[in-house]
């Protein structure tokens, strides 16, 4: 029996049938590498997935530092999203920074019974009094949708009354099947109410947006440092260390760089439709990944000087890390890894591991869709189901005034054909034969795969980290980087290599078995002689 | 650093800023993890379960297993009965627990799922159990959820057969595994045989063995919970976390209870020892008296550094009251005492302590938040903050020494192994407090005042 069959075989027939669709034995499976994704988790299964609210408030909105974000609901949801995702943000002159605060309406029973709108209105009034924010976000949690509070009407009224921006997000946890629904809801509202409103002057024609970069562990800062060194102007970052002011100006860029495809591709596409700005799937994780990405961006801008500068910067940056990388590679070469995280990282980190001579034998996404696995070519074949139909999809029209093309249309089309822009190939193309790709990898499967594949490292989230470690396998968190970072770009690669190396070589691993477990019962002599 | 917090008083009635509590289910999940071979199950959308597991894992640095009904929009409209049914089948099938402990979330509570009816409808395999508790997040806090789960285990399972078993029931309240071990050690030292419910020691502080165990060795067994009905007496620690469980056991099986404060500090530990002694009718062994004497000796030694120092304490009500009493015993002034969990009993208990020790000008508040605590500190400063991780921003903003005690502590390690309860716990707490204050004194000392001995 193959490893997959072995794992699946322990399920009842119904679960077996369902889960089988979510597993691919790369290039050896009957389905031609087709995978089921973005569908419901089976009740009772210990999943690592979160909810719509986590994707909306936790992932996309959370990092926007100058929006005062009120979570409308009972206390828990707001509490858990308070400072736990490590999206770093610098306080800047003239820009509010609420990242260290948690705001909630802390709904009580009467609010559930009689409706919570009144309390929400009051909460907004108090927030305005105390904090004078320029922007307020309202995120709703499970009970709010059920009792029917109209948070959008409350937001409209607040805008009028206080002369501020107030945006509501109906991101109740039960919507969709994972965090993914929440990304989409957040994207829609940002497109509707934020992007395009700014009139900041853009100084360089090499102007880019970085989309799907949330500045975990300072990743966004490292990426920006490299881009600026080459001569790019970063107009906005969605949404790591960002402010509403920055986001408003996204329509001024000439290219959108998409780091995390899943969480932000909606915005990338809508920006292109409305403002003519194409998007490029990039990856700043891994040395080779970063180099390739920088060259691709230069290719798009097609400017001799920029291209030359790109090579100079690449050579210089590599020079600075070469010794470190060589050292860590000598320590890690030949090791194997399994990765289960998010909706892009499971792909990106394979490049960085590859740089270090580590091969990835199992990878999966927590809330990816089929395109993250199989590439955007499968988009026309994805049938929407009831859960995805419930998530609003908005269409946008070209904006007559702000629409602009950096390259002539034929060239854009050529680049599209070359798949340099507007394309994402998915993870599968970068996975070797005989490796495994598993969607929504649950606890049981994690345990079983770890037992059978015995990777040296398991990259995951906090909920399964200690499961792996208790079974003797090093685990590092890839959502929060185990409180380290940055891991992006050239310097980040060294940080990552250092962290993995110290994990593998920590002497404590050698003490896991107590020595007396291996030695026979003492043959003592009497009297201590 | 919390730059927008102003000291001016402002009455908020709707906006919660930087809460000092969280929602019920995480407490219920923690309690259920203290039962051997139990799978905590979260009935609602999977996000809640993910958050709660994340939080427990971050505090304990150990796996916190729990399953979920994974509601999507359909279940939210039509009710979660079929989700629970499917879930139960899969859980027994795949994870083979002895018992499933279901708690609700604000979602299933709002749609009004009738868990009693659902569970009656479910085919529970022979020799297995399924219990539930209601944990609406719009009432109480995680402490309420903990207390509800303990009470539900008892009301579902405990029976009295008429034959007393000579045991005491120890209900430890929402404390760390390290505290539970210490409570048990003291009981054993006094010759009391007991059952502890819940008991997360061995579960959330499990050893590294090279093998992951879904159900580690620790936890109260189902048989033990059933037999609770035959116990002689319950020692319930903490009104907020344990009274409901003790009361349920009394009502259901006629087991009387003694509601004790969580034994943090000298007099509260004394109270526990006396209760144990009364139960077992044995002499207090010298070892314990020695520990007590050591603690008293320590407090006398350190008093120049602690006396009259002002401290803010926040966190869970039973724990905060314990720490408050202990710092009063140390001659400190618990200037601000705050819990996020609502309940007047907290305020009256705190005020009784202020009176007992004759301190003036202290404020106690239940159902408060850290924004307000910060405002008080800005208004009138203090020397030390004691509480969970979320106090670190205030500590940094106001440049005040901070020690972590209580729940949650998500930015430090090892705390959950070390007790705060008992004389030993007192020594540890006294050490942390004194060192924090002395470090501060060293840091602030002028060059010419900086001394080797202190
Ligand atoms: S939805 Fe309710 S139960 Fe779930 S995390 Fe939020 S407050 Fe807690
Ligand atoms: S990489 Fe994954 S976890 Fe991170 S933001 Fe993207 S979708 Fe979320």
UniProtKB/TrEMBL annotation, chain A:
InterPro entries: Nase/OxRdtase_comp1, Nase_comp1_asu, Nase_comp1_CS, Nase_Mo-Fe_asu. One of its GO terms (molecular function) is iron-sulfur cluster binding. The keyword Kinase does not apply. It comes from the Bacteria. Its cofactor is [8Fe-7S] cluster; [7Fe-Mo-9S-C-homocitryl] cluster. SUPFAM superfamilies: Helical backbone' metal receptor. One of its GO terms (cellular component) is molybdenum-iron nitrogenase complex. Keywords: ATP-binding, Iron, Iron-sulfur, Metal-binding, Molybdenum, Nitrogen fixation, Nucleotide-binding, Oxidoreductase. Tetramer of two alpha and two beta chains. Forms complex with the iron protein (nitrogenase component 2). This molybdenum-iron protein is part of the nitrogenase complex that catalyzes the key enzymatic reactions in nitrogen fixation. This is Nitrogenase protein alpha chain. It comes from Anaerocolumna cellulosilytica.
TrEMBL record, chain B:
The keyword Lipid metabolism does not apply. Gene3D superfamilies: Nitrogenase molybdenum iron protein domain (3.40.50.1980), Nitrogenase Molybdenum-iron Protein, subunit B, domain 4 (1.20.89.10). It holds the Pfam family Oxidored_nitro. GO terms for molecular function: nitrogenase activity. Keywords: Nitrogen fixation. InterPro entries: ChlB/BchB/BchZ, Nase/OxRdtase_comp1, Nase_comp1_CS. Belongs to the NifD/NifK/NifE/NifN family. This is Nitrogenase molybdenum-iron protein subunit beta. It comes from Anaerocolumna cellulosilytica. The gene is nifK.
């Amino acid at each position: 029996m193959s490893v997959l069959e072995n794992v699946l075989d322990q399920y009842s027939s119904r679960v077996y049938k369902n889960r089988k669709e979510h597993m691919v034995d790369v290039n050896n499976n009957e389905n031609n590498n087709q995978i089921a994704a973005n569908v419901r988790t089976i009740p009772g299964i210990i999943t690592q997935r979160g909810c719509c609210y986590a994707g909306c408030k936790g992932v996309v909105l959370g990092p926007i530092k100058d929006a005062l974000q009120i979570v409308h609901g009972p206390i828990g949801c707001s509490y858990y999203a308070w400072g736990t995702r490590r999206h770093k943000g610098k306080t800047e002159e003239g820009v509010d920074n609420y990242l260290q605060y948690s705001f909630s309406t802390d709904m009580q029973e009467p609010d559930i019974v009689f409706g919570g709108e009144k309390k929400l209105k009051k909460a907004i009034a108090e927030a305005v009094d105390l904090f004078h924010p320029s922007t307020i976000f309202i995120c709703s949690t499970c009970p709010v949708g059920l009792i029917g509070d109209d948070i959008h009407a409350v937001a409209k009224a607040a805008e009028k009354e206080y002369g501020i921006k107030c945006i509501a997000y109906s991101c109740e946890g039960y919507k969709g099947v994972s965090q993914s629904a929440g990304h989409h809801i957040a994207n829609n509202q940002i497109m509707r109410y934020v992007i395009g409103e700014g009139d900041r002057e853009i100084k360089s024609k090499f102007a880019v947006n970085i989309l799907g970069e949330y500045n975990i562990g300072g990743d966004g800062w490292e990426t920006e440092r490299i881009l600026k060194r080459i001569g790019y102007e970063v107009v906005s970052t969605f949404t790591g260390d960002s402010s509403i002011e920055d986001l408003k100006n996204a329509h001024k860029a000439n290219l959108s760089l998409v780091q995390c495809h899943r969480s932000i591709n909606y915005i990338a596409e809508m920006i292109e439709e409305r403002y003519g700005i194409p998007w490029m799937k990039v990856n700043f994780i891994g040395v080779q990944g970063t180099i390739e990405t920088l060259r691709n961006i230069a290719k798009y801008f097609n400017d001799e000087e920029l291209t030359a500068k790109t090579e100079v910067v690449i050579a210089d940056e590599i020079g600075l890390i070469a010794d470190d990388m060589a050292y860590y590679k000598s320590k890690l070469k030949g090791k194997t890894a399994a990765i289960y995280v998010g909706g892009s990282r499971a792909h990106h980190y394979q490049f960085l591991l590859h740089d270090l001579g580590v091969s990835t034998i199992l990878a999966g996404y927590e809330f990816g869709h089929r395109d993250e696995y199989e590439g955007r070519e499968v988009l026309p074949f994805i049938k929407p189901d009831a859960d995805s139909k419930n998530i609003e999809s908005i269409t946008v029209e070209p904006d007559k005034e702000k629409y602009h093309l950096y390259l002539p249309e034929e060239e854009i089309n050529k680049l599209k054909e070359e798949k340099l822009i507007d394309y994402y190939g998915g993870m599968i193309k970068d996975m070797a034969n005989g490796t495994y790709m598993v969607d929504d990898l649950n606890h049981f499967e994690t345990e079983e795969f770890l037992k059978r594949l015995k990777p040296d490292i398991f990259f995951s989230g906090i909920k399964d980290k200690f499961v792996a470690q208790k079974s003797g396998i090093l685990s590092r968190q890839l959502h929060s980087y185990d409180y380290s970072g940055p891991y992006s770009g050239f310097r980040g690669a060294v940080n990552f290599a250092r962290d993995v190396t110290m994990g593998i070589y920590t002497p404590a691993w050698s003490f896991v078995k107590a020595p007396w477990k291996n030695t026979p019962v003492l043959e003592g002599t009497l009297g201590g002689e | 650093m919390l730059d927008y917090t102003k000291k001016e008083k402002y009455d908020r009635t709707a906006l919660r800023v930087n809460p000092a509590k969280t929602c019920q289910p995480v407490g219920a999940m923690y309690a259920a993890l203290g039962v051997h071979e139990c799978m905590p199950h979260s009935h609602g959308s999977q996000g809640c379960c993910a958050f709660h597991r994340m939080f427990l894992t971050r505090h304990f640095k150990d796996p916190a297993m729990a399953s979920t009904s994974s509601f999507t929009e359909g279940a939210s409209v039509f009710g979660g009965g079929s989700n629970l049914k499917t879930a139960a089948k899969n859980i027994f099938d795949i994870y083979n627990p002895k018992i499933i402990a279901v708690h609700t979330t604000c979602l299933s509570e709002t749609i009004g799922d009738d868990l009693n009816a659902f569970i009656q409808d479910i085919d529970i395999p022979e020799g297995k159990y399924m219990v539930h508790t209601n944990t609406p997040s719009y009432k109480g806090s995680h402490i309420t959820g903990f207390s509800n789960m303990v009470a539900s285990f008892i009301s579902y399972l405990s029976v009295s057969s008429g034959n007393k078993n000579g045991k005491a029931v120890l209900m430890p309240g929402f404390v760390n595994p390290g505290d539970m071990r210490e409570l048990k050690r003291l009981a054993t030292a006094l010759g009391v045989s007991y059952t502890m419910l819940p008991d997360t020691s061995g579960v959330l502080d499990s050893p590294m063995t090279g093998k992951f165990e879904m159900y580690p060795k620790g936890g109260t067994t189902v048989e033990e919970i059933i037999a609770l009905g035959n116990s002689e007496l319950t020692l319930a620690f903490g009104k907020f976390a344990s009274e409901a469980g003790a009361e349920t056991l009394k009502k259901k099986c006629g087991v009387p209870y003694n509601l004790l404060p969580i034994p943090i500090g000298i007099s509260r530990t004394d109270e526990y020892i006396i209760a144990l002694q009364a139960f077992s009718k044995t002499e207090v062994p010298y070892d314990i008296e020695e520990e007590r004497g050591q603690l008293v000796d320590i407090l006398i030694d350190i008093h120049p550094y602690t006396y009259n120092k002002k401290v803010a304490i926040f966190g869970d009500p039973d724990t905060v009251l314990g720490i408050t009493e202990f710092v009063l015993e140390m001659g400190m002034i618990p200037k601000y005492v705050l819990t996020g969990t609502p309940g007047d009993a907290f305020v009256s208990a705190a005020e009784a302590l202020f009176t007992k020790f004759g301190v003036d000008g202290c404020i106690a508040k239940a159902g408060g938040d850290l924004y307000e605590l910060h405002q008080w500190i800005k208004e009138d400063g203090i020397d030390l903050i004691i509480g969970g991780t979320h106090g670190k921003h205030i500590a940094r903003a106001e440049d005040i020494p901070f020690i972590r005690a209580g729940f949650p502590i998500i930015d430090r390690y090892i705390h959950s192994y070390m007790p705060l309860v008992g004389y030993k716990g007192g020594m540890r707490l006294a050490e942390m407090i004194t060192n924090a204050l002395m470090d501060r004194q060293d840091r602030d000392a002028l060059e010419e005042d900086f001394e080797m001995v202190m």
